[in-house]
Amino acid sequence: MKIVCFSINPVFPDRITGGASKHLMRLVQYLAGQGHQVVLLAAEAVGGQEVFALGERILVKPVLPFHLPFPQPYLIAPGDLARLCELIAEELRSADRFYIHDGELLLPFLYSDVPTVISFRDNFYPESILGSFINQADEIIAVSNFSAAALRASAGRVLPEIANRIHTVLNGIDPEIFFPTDPSPIFHRFGLDPEKHRIILHPHRPEPGKGLLETIQVVEILVRDFGIEGIRVLVPQWLELMNGEAESEFHRLITAELSRRGLTENFIFHDWLSQSDMAAYYSAGEVTLCLGNMVEAFGNVAYESLVCGTPSIAARVGVHRSQLPDELIDKVDYGDARAAAAAAAQILMKRSRVEGERLERIREAFSLSRQLQSYARIISEAKKRKPPISEPLSIDENTRFALAPWCYLSEKGFFQDYHARYYDIPSLKELLSLSSVITPETRAYCGVQLELAVAWYQLGIIIPIRD
Description:
- The chain contains 16 helices and 20 strands.
- The longest helix is centred in the middle third of the chain and has 17 residues, at 245-261.
- It folds into 3 domains: 2-172 and 369-381, Rossmann fold (3-Layer(aba) Sandwich); 184-365, Glycogen Phosphorylase B (Rossmann fold, 3-Layer(aba) Sandwich); 400-465, no CATH class.
- The protein is an alpha/beta fold.
Protein backbone atom coordinates (compact mmCIF):
# COMPACT_ATOMS: atom_id res chain seq x y z
CA MET A 1 0.00 0.00 0.00
CA LYS A 2 0.98 3.65 -0.32
CA ILE A 3 1.64 5.23 3.07
CA VAL A 4 2.00 9.01 3.26
CA CYS A 5 3.89 10.25 6.31
CA PHE A 6 4.00 13.78 7.70
CA SER A 7 6.74 15.59 9.61
CA ILE A 8 6.46 19.19 10.79
CA ASN A 9 10.26 19.17 11.20
CA PRO A 10 12.74 19.26 8.33
CA VAL A 11 14.21 15.93 7.22
CA PHE A 12 17.67 15.55 5.72
CA PRO A 13 19.35 12.69 3.81
CA ASP A 14 22.56 12.84 5.86
CA ARG A 15 21.77 13.96 9.42
CA ILE A 16 19.35 13.51 12.30
CA THR A 17 18.06 16.63 14.07
CA GLY A 18 16.50 15.07 17.16
CA GLY A 19 14.66 12.19 18.73
CA ALA A 20 11.47 12.60 16.68
CA SER A 21 13.22 12.55 13.30
CA LYS A 22 15.38 9.63 14.44
CA HIS A 23 12.34 7.45 15.09
CA LEU A 24 10.62 8.63 11.91
CA MET A 25 13.58 7.60 9.76
CA ARG A 26 13.65 4.14 11.30
CA LEU A 27 9.91 3.75 10.77
CA VAL A 28 9.79 4.75 7.10
CA GLN A 29 12.70 2.44 6.35
CA TYR A 30 10.94 -0.42 8.13
CA LEU A 31 7.66 0.23 6.27
CA ALA A 32 9.51 0.26 2.95
CA GLY A 33 11.20 -2.97 3.93
CA GLN A 34 7.73 -4.48 4.40
CA GLY A 35 6.98 -3.69 0.76
CA HIS A 36 5.02 -0.43 1.17
CA GLN A 37 5.56 2.67 -0.94
CA VAL A 38 6.34 5.56 1.43
CA VAL A 39 6.08 9.26 0.67
CA LEU A 40 7.35 11.50 3.45
CA LEU A 41 6.05 15.08 3.40
CA ALA A 42 8.20 17.36 5.55
CA ALA A 43 8.79 21.01 6.32
CA GLU A 44 11.11 22.74 3.88
CA ALA A 45 14.38 23.72 5.57
CA VAL A 46 15.55 27.30 5.54
CA GLY A 47 17.27 27.89 2.20
CA GLY A 48 15.21 25.30 0.35
CA GLN A 49 15.59 21.60 -0.37
CA GLU A 50 15.19 19.23 -3.27
CA VAL A 51 13.06 16.09 -3.29
CA PHE A 52 15.25 13.08 -2.49
CA ALA A 53 14.99 9.30 -2.14
CA LEU A 54 15.91 7.35 0.99
CA GLY A 55 15.92 4.00 -0.70
CA GLU A 56 14.00 2.16 -3.34
CA ARG A 57 10.52 2.77 -1.89
CA ILE A 58 10.96 6.01 0.11
CA LEU A 59 10.51 9.42 -1.49
CA VAL A 60 11.04 12.46 0.73
CA LYS A 61 9.32 15.69 -0.30
CA PRO A 62 10.58 18.51 1.97
CA VAL A 63 8.19 21.05 0.46
CA LEU A 64 5.79 22.18 3.21
CA PRO A 65 6.10 25.94 3.88
CA PHE A 66 6.03 25.92 7.69
CA HIS A 67 7.75 28.69 9.60
CA LEU A 68 11.23 27.76 10.80
CA PRO A 69 12.89 27.64 13.20
CA PHE A 70 10.50 26.75 16.00
CA PRO A 71 8.43 27.95 17.76
CA GLN A 72 5.25 28.97 15.88
CA PRO A 73 5.40 26.71 12.80
CA TYR A 74 2.06 28.16 11.68
CA LEU A 75 3.40 31.71 11.60
CA ILE A 76 3.00 31.83 7.82
CA ALA A 77 1.01 33.86 5.33
CA PRO A 78 -2.56 32.70 4.60
CA GLY A 79 -1.63 31.91 1.03
CA ASP A 80 1.20 29.67 2.23
CA LEU A 81 -1.18 27.83 4.53
CA ALA A 82 -3.52 27.23 1.60
CA ARG A 83 -0.60 25.96 -0.50
CA LEU A 84 0.43 23.65 2.33
CA CYS A 85 -3.10 22.20 2.34
CA GLU A 86 -2.98 21.71 -1.42
CA LEU A 87 0.35 19.89 -1.28
CA ILE A 88 -0.87 17.46 1.40
CA ALA A 89 -4.28 16.93 -0.20
CA GLU A 90 -2.70 16.12 -3.57
CA GLU A 91 -0.53 13.40 -2.02
CA LEU A 92 -3.40 11.94 -0.02
CA ARG A 93 -5.61 11.43 -3.10
CA SER A 94 -3.73 8.23 -3.87
CA ALA A 95 -2.84 7.25 -0.28
CA ASP A 96 -4.00 4.09 1.47
CA ARG A 97 -2.85 5.28 4.90
CA PHE A 98 -1.74 8.56 6.44
CA TYR A 99 0.75 8.59 9.29
CA ILE A 100 1.30 11.85 11.20
CA HIS A 101 4.55 11.81 13.18
CA ASP A 102 3.45 13.94 16.12
CA GLY A 103 0.07 15.61 16.49
CA GLU A 104 1.04 18.96 15.00
CA LEU A 105 -0.89 18.87 11.72
CA LEU A 106 -3.88 20.96 12.83
CA LEU A 107 -5.94 20.48 9.66
CA PRO A 108 -8.09 17.35 10.20
CA PHE A 109 -10.32 17.98 7.17
CA LEU A 110 -7.38 17.04 4.94
CA TYR A 111 -7.54 13.38 5.94
CA SER A 112 -11.28 12.88 6.44
CA ASP A 113 -11.31 10.09 3.83
CA VAL A 114 -7.98 8.38 4.60
CA PRO A 115 -7.35 6.02 7.56
CA THR A 116 -5.00 8.08 9.73
CA VAL A 117 -2.65 7.22 12.57
CA ILE A 118 -1.06 9.88 14.76
CA SER A 119 1.93 9.25 17.00
CA PHE A 120 2.09 11.88 19.74
CA ARG A 121 5.78 12.48 20.38
CA ASP A 122 5.31 15.05 23.14
CA ASN A 123 2.79 16.47 25.58
CA PHE A 124 4.48 19.85 25.81
CA TYR A 125 4.51 21.98 22.67
CA PRO A 126 1.32 23.98 21.98
CA GLU A 127 0.72 22.44 18.56
CA SER A 128 0.86 18.91 20.00
CA ILE A 129 -1.44 19.71 22.92
CA LEU A 130 -3.95 21.49 20.68
CA GLY A 131 -3.58 18.72 18.13
CA SER A 132 -4.61 16.09 20.68
CA PHE A 133 -7.97 17.88 20.95
CA ILE A 134 -8.68 18.79 17.33
CA ASN A 135 -7.01 16.01 15.35
CA GLN A 136 -9.36 13.22 14.37
CA ALA A 137 -7.03 10.25 14.26
CA ASP A 138 -8.47 6.81 13.70
CA GLU A 139 -5.67 5.34 15.83
CA ILE A 140 -3.36 7.12 18.29
CA ILE A 141 0.11 6.00 19.38
CA ALA A 142 1.51 7.23 22.69
CA VAL A 143 5.25 6.76 23.21
CA SER A 144 5.03 6.06 26.95
CA ASN A 145 2.55 5.16 29.64
CA PHE A 146 2.90 8.70 30.99
CA SER A 147 2.04 10.20 27.61
CA ALA A 148 -0.99 7.91 27.23
CA ALA A 149 -2.21 8.87 30.70
CA ALA A 150 -1.77 12.59 29.91
CA LEU A 151 -3.77 12.21 26.69
CA ARG A 152 -6.59 10.39 28.48
CA ALA A 153 -6.66 12.96 31.27
CA SER A 154 -6.82 15.96 28.92
CA ALA A 155 -8.24 15.45 25.43
CA GLY A 156 -9.77 12.18 26.60
CA ARG A 157 -11.74 14.04 29.26
CA VAL A 158 -13.47 16.08 26.57
CA LEU A 159 -13.52 13.41 23.85
CA PRO A 160 -13.88 10.17 25.84
CA GLU A 161 -13.94 7.94 22.74
CA ILE A 162 -10.26 8.80 22.22
CA ALA A 163 -9.36 6.39 25.02
CA ASN A 164 -10.39 3.47 22.81
CA ARG A 165 -7.97 4.58 20.07
CA ILE A 166 -4.78 4.92 22.15
CA HIS A 167 -1.98 2.37 21.79
CA THR A 168 1.08 2.66 24.02
CA VAL A 169 4.29 1.77 22.15
CA LEU A 170 7.56 2.69 23.81
CA ASN A 171 10.25 4.14 21.60
CA GLY A 172 12.81 1.54 20.67
CA ILE A 173 16.55 2.10 21.00
CA ASP A 174 18.60 0.68 18.15
CA PRO A 175 21.27 -1.67 19.58
CA GLU A 176 23.33 -1.25 16.40
CA ILE A 177 23.61 2.50 17.02
CA PHE A 178 23.60 2.73 20.82
CA PHE A 179 25.93 0.33 22.64
CA PRO A 180 29.00 0.49 24.92
CA THR A 181 32.00 1.14 22.67
CA ASP A 182 35.48 2.63 22.46
CA PRO A 183 35.22 6.34 23.41
CA SER A 184 38.73 7.29 22.29
CA PRO A 185 37.57 9.09 19.10
CA ILE A 186 35.57 11.47 21.30
CA PHE A 187 38.48 12.00 23.68
CA HIS A 188 40.69 12.87 20.72
CA ARG A 189 38.09 15.07 19.04
CA PHE A 190 37.53 17.28 22.10
CA GLY A 191 41.02 17.16 23.58
CA LEU A 192 39.99 15.12 26.61
CA ASP A 193 42.19 12.95 28.81
CA PRO A 194 40.15 10.37 30.77
CA GLU A 195 42.98 10.17 33.32
CA LYS A 196 42.56 13.79 34.38
CA HIS A 197 39.12 14.85 33.11
CA ARG A 198 35.78 13.85 34.62
CA ILE A 199 33.39 13.89 31.67
CA ILE A 200 29.75 14.82 32.16
CA LEU A 201 27.26 14.82 29.28
CA HIS A 202 24.44 17.26 28.62
CA PRO A 203 23.37 16.05 25.14
CA HIS A 204 20.20 18.12 24.73
CA ARG A 205 18.88 20.82 22.41
CA PRO A 206 19.75 24.36 23.57
CA GLU A 207 16.39 25.15 25.19
CA PRO A 208 15.82 26.43 28.74
CA GLY A 209 13.56 23.50 29.62
CA LYS A 210 16.26 20.95 28.80
CA GLY A 211 18.14 21.66 32.03
CA LEU A 212 21.41 23.37 31.13
CA LEU A 213 21.08 25.92 33.93
CA GLU A 214 20.43 23.04 36.33
CA THR A 215 23.52 21.23 35.01
CA ILE A 216 25.58 24.37 35.69
CA GLN A 217 24.31 24.46 39.28
CA VAL A 218 25.23 20.78 39.78
CA VAL A 219 28.75 21.30 38.39
CA GLU A 220 29.30 24.26 40.70
CA ILE A 221 28.40 22.08 43.70
CA LEU A 222 30.63 19.23 42.48
CA VAL A 223 33.58 21.61 42.19
CA ARG A 224 32.94 23.70 45.31
CA ASP A 225 31.58 21.17 47.83
CA PHE A 226 32.82 17.80 46.59
CA GLY A 227 36.22 19.04 45.40
CA ILE A 228 36.01 17.17 42.09
CA GLU A 229 38.61 18.54 39.70
CA GLY A 230 38.93 18.37 35.93
CA ILE A 231 35.20 18.36 35.17
CA ARG A 232 34.38 18.80 31.50
CA VAL A 233 30.75 19.02 30.42
CA LEU A 234 30.02 18.33 26.75
CA VAL A 235 27.12 20.40 25.38
CA PRO A 236 25.98 20.27 21.73
CA GLN A 237 25.07 23.42 19.85
CA TRP A 238 22.04 23.48 17.55
CA LEU A 239 22.40 23.15 13.78
CA GLU A 240 22.94 26.56 12.20
CA LEU A 241 19.96 26.23 9.85
CA MET A 242 17.70 25.34 12.83
CA ASN A 243 19.01 28.21 14.95
CA GLY A 244 16.90 31.27 15.72
CA GLU A 245 17.03 34.35 17.93
CA ALA A 246 15.67 32.42 20.93
CA GLU A 247 18.51 29.90 20.68
CA SER A 248 21.10 32.65 20.25
CA GLU A 249 19.77 34.57 23.25
CA PHE A 250 19.81 31.42 25.37
CA HIS A 251 23.44 30.80 24.44
CA ARG A 252 24.34 34.37 25.46
CA LEU A 253 22.59 33.82 28.79
CA ILE A 254 24.48 30.58 29.40
CA THR A 255 27.82 32.12 28.48
CA ALA A 256 27.25 34.95 30.97
CA GLU A 257 26.17 32.51 33.70
CA LEU A 258 29.28 30.36 33.27
CA SER A 259 31.48 33.42 33.44
CA ARG A 260 29.73 34.67 36.58
CA ARG A 261 30.21 31.31 38.34
CA GLY A 262 33.79 30.84 37.13
CA LEU A 263 32.94 27.66 35.24
CA THR A 264 33.73 28.66 31.66
CA GLU A 265 36.62 26.21 31.27
CA ASN A 266 34.46 23.34 32.59
CA PHE A 267 32.06 23.45 29.63
CA ILE A 268 32.83 22.45 26.05
CA PHE A 269 30.28 23.56 23.44
CA HIS A 270 30.56 21.54 20.26
CA ASP A 271 28.90 21.04 16.89
CA TRP A 272 25.85 18.79 16.55
CA LEU A 273 27.00 15.19 16.19
CA SER A 274 25.97 12.56 13.66
CA GLN A 275 24.19 9.36 14.66
CA SER A 276 27.32 7.36 13.94
CA ASP A 277 29.19 9.29 16.65
CA MET A 278 26.64 8.80 19.41
CA ALA A 279 27.71 5.41 20.81
CA ALA A 280 31.25 6.68 21.38
CA TYR A 281 29.91 10.00 22.69
CA TYR A 282 27.66 8.41 25.30
CA SER A 283 30.38 5.87 26.17
CA ALA A 284 32.85 8.71 26.76
CA GLY A 285 30.72 10.20 29.51
CA GLU A 286 30.82 9.15 33.14
CA VAL A 287 27.32 10.45 33.82
CA THR A 288 24.55 12.04 31.74
CA LEU A 289 22.39 14.78 33.28
CA CYS A 290 18.69 15.18 32.36
CA LEU A 291 17.57 17.71 34.94
CA GLY A 292 15.27 20.03 32.99
CA ASN A 293 11.59 20.80 33.57
CA MET A 294 10.39 20.09 30.03
CA VAL A 295 7.51 17.63 30.28
CA GLU A 296 9.06 14.87 28.19
CA ALA A 297 6.79 12.21 26.71
CA PHE A 298 9.72 9.79 26.34
CA GLY A 299 13.11 11.45 26.92
CA ASN A 300 15.48 9.68 24.51
CA VAL A 301 18.75 10.98 25.94
CA ALA A 302 18.47 9.45 29.41
CA TYR A 303 17.82 5.96 28.04
CA GLU A 304 20.22 6.06 25.08
CA SER A 305 22.95 6.91 27.57
CA LEU A 306 22.04 3.94 29.77
CA VAL A 307 22.23 1.43 26.92
CA CYS A 308 25.69 2.79 26.09
CA GLY A 309 26.76 1.97 29.63
CA THR A 310 26.71 5.50 31.07
CA PRO A 311 24.51 6.20 34.12
CA SER A 312 21.85 8.91 33.80
CA ILE A 313 20.40 11.18 36.44
CA ALA A 314 16.90 12.43 35.58
CA ALA A 315 14.60 14.89 37.28
CA ARG A 316 11.23 13.42 38.27
CA VAL A 317 9.38 15.41 35.63
CA GLY A 318 6.95 13.90 33.15
CA VAL A 319 7.89 10.49 31.85
CA HIS A 320 11.06 10.13 33.93
CA ARG A 321 9.04 9.40 37.08
CA SER A 322 7.76 6.11 35.71
CA GLN A 323 9.63 5.13 32.54
CA LEU A 324 12.03 2.83 34.40
CA PRO A 325 12.03 1.56 38.00
CA ASP A 326 14.26 3.43 40.43
CA GLU A 327 16.88 0.67 40.55
CA LEU A 328 17.65 1.15 36.84
CA ILE A 329 18.08 4.94 36.74
CA ASP A 330 18.91 7.65 39.28
CA LYS A 331 16.08 10.13 39.88
CA VAL A 332 15.94 13.38 41.83
CA ASP A 333 13.22 15.92 42.49
CA TYR A 334 13.24 18.83 40.06
CA GLY A 335 15.26 21.78 41.30
CA ASP A 336 17.18 19.76 43.90
CA ALA A 337 20.67 20.52 42.60
CA ARG A 338 22.29 19.24 45.80
CA ALA A 339 20.65 15.81 45.49
CA ALA A 340 21.64 15.65 41.82
CA ALA A 341 25.21 16.63 42.67
CA ALA A 342 25.37 14.00 45.43
CA ALA A 343 24.16 11.32 43.02
CA ALA A 344 26.65 12.47 40.37
CA ALA A 345 29.49 12.51 42.90
CA GLN A 346 28.75 8.91 43.89
CA ILE A 347 28.80 7.82 40.25
CA LEU A 348 32.02 9.73 39.56
CA MET A 349 33.82 8.46 42.65
CA LYS A 350 32.78 4.84 42.08
CA ARG A 351 33.22 5.12 38.30
CA SER A 352 29.91 3.26 37.99
CA ARG A 353 28.83 1.78 34.66
CA VAL A 354 25.57 0.25 33.44
CA GLU A 355 26.27 -3.38 32.64
CA GLY A 356 25.21 -6.97 33.15
CA GLU A 357 21.62 -7.75 34.08
CA ARG A 358 20.81 -4.06 34.53
CA LEU A 359 21.85 -3.30 30.96
CA GLU A 360 19.88 -6.25 29.59
CA ARG A 361 16.71 -5.18 31.40
CA ILE A 362 16.98 -1.69 29.93
CA ARG A 363 17.57 -3.02 26.41
CA GLU A 364 14.52 -5.27 26.70
CA ALA A 365 12.34 -2.38 27.87
CA PHE A 366 13.25 -0.40 24.74
CA SER A 367 13.10 -3.08 22.06
CA LEU A 368 13.36 -1.49 18.62
CA SER A 369 11.92 -4.50 16.80
CA ARG A 370 8.86 -4.46 19.05
CA GLN A 371 8.32 -0.75 18.38
CA LEU A 372 8.60 -1.04 14.61
CA GLN A 373 6.42 -4.13 14.37
CA SER A 374 3.74 -2.47 16.51
CA TYR A 375 3.75 0.74 14.45
CA ALA A 376 3.55 -1.17 11.16
CA ARG A 377 0.65 -3.27 12.43
CA ILE A 378 -1.31 -0.27 13.77
CA ILE A 379 -0.80 1.71 10.55
CA SER A 380 -1.58 -1.12 8.15
CA GLU A 381 -4.68 -2.26 10.08
CA ALA A 382 -6.14 1.23 10.63
CA LYS A 383 -9.72 1.75 9.48
CA LYS A 384 -11.62 4.98 8.99
CA ARG A 385 -13.72 5.90 12.03
CA LYS A 386 -16.20 8.63 12.76
CA PRO A 387 -14.80 11.71 14.52
CA PRO A 388 -15.03 11.43 18.32
CA ILE A 389 -17.99 13.20 19.94
CA SER A 390 -17.38 15.99 22.44
CA GLU A 391 -18.64 15.21 25.95
CA PRO A 392 -17.01 17.65 28.42
CA LEU A 393 -17.48 16.83 32.09
CA SER A 394 -19.50 19.02 34.46
CA ILE A 395 -18.24 19.64 37.99
CA ASP A 396 -20.78 19.27 40.80
CA GLU A 397 -21.14 17.81 44.29
CA ASN A 398 -21.09 14.27 42.92
CA THR A 399 -17.88 14.65 40.91
CA ARG A 400 -15.04 12.26 41.70
CA PHE A 401 -11.43 13.38 41.29
CA ALA A 402 -7.97 11.84 41.04
CA LEU A 403 -4.42 13.16 41.07
CA ALA A 404 -3.49 14.34 37.57
CA PRO A 405 -0.86 12.19 35.81
CA TRP A 406 1.31 15.29 35.41
CA CYS A 407 1.55 15.59 39.22
CA TYR A 408 3.13 13.58 42.02
CA LEU A 409 3.57 13.92 45.76
CA SER A 410 7.15 14.55 46.87
CA GLU A 411 8.62 15.54 50.22
CA LYS A 412 8.39 19.14 48.98
CA GLY A 413 4.66 18.87 48.22
CA PHE A 414 2.66 18.17 45.09
CA PHE A 415 4.77 18.82 42.01
CA GLN A 416 2.88 20.06 38.93
CA ASP A 417 4.87 19.33 35.77
CA TYR A 418 3.44 22.15 33.68
CA HIS A 419 4.00 24.75 36.42
CA ALA A 420 7.42 23.29 37.38
CA ARG A 421 6.65 24.06 41.02
CA TYR A 422 5.59 22.41 44.26
CA TYR A 423 2.33 22.97 46.17
CA ASP A 424 2.04 22.27 49.89
CA ILE A 425 -1.53 21.00 50.35
CA PRO A 426 -1.87 18.92 53.56
CA SER A 427 -5.62 18.38 53.15
CA LEU A 428 -5.16 16.90 49.66
CA LYS A 429 -2.38 14.69 50.97
CA GLU A 430 -4.77 13.43 53.68
CA LEU A 431 -7.51 12.74 51.12
CA LEU A 432 -5.22 10.75 48.84
CA SER A 433 -3.89 8.74 51.77
CA LEU A 434 -7.41 7.31 52.11
CA SER A 435 -7.91 6.44 48.45
CA SER A 436 -6.52 7.27 45.02
CA VAL A 437 -10.04 8.42 44.05
CA ILE A 438 -11.47 11.46 45.81
CA THR A 439 -15.18 10.82 46.28
CA PRO A 440 -17.91 12.99 47.84
CA GLU A 441 -17.75 10.63 50.82
CA THR A 442 -13.99 10.99 51.39
CA ARG A 443 -14.27 14.77 50.97
CA ALA A 444 -16.99 14.83 53.63
CA TYR A 445 -14.90 12.62 55.94
CA CYS A 446 -11.94 15.01 55.68
CA GLY A 447 -14.10 18.15 55.78
CA VAL A 448 -13.09 19.30 52.29
CA GLN A 449 -15.72 21.45 50.60
CA LEU A 450 -16.32 21.23 46.85
CA GLU A 451 -15.02 24.77 46.42
CA LEU A 452 -11.61 23.73 47.71
CA ALA A 453 -11.50 20.67 45.43
CA VAL A 454 -12.43 22.93 42.49
CA ALA A 455 -9.50 25.21 43.38
CA TRP A 456 -7.14 22.21 43.17
CA TYR A 457 -8.79 21.21 39.90
CA GLN A 458 -8.24 24.71 38.51
CA LEU A 459 -4.56 24.43 39.43
CA GLY A 460 -4.42 21.27 37.36
CA ILE A 461 -3.39 19.15 40.34
CA ILE A 462 -6.48 16.96 40.37
CA ILE A 463 -8.71 15.99 37.47
CA PRO A 464 -12.38 14.98 37.32
CA ILE A 465 -13.01 11.36 36.35
CA ARG A 466 -15.99 9.71 34.73
CA ASP A 467 -18.27 7.30 36.54
